[in-house]
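Memo to structure team: turn this sequence into structure tokens by end of day. - J.P.
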Amino acid sequence: MNNLNNNSSKIILFDGVCNFCNYWVNFIIDRDRQNNFKLAALQSEKGIELLKKFNLPEDDFDSFILISQNRVYKKSAAAFEIAKYLYGWPIILTPLRFLPKLFTDLIYDLIAKNRYKFFGKKESCRIPTPEERSKFLA
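Reply from structure team:
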């Protein structure tokens, strides 16, 4: 697993065919000025490899996943952890992590369950542009 064994790596797994998820991937890329994150679609070879490594379901793409220092963050916990490292206004979201996880994950789940209906779906996973390629696990 090249460059996945580095404990300082922060890896984001996302639904590669979801338009809403791809919006947030672009959002993260634009605000990750310190290059903290590497990205992979959940459906990709690297995504599946990481899901297996961390004993996560390989067919459930309803969660944004962050793997940081061999720790797995899912759903709203992943979003709040990612926000800590982004440039600009997303940092103001981090205090929301102190809200009850039951509440924040409920909101997360409502959006996740309806994301294709509200935002659409691509036929295939996102392909990074040449400029973005270094942000993605190959």
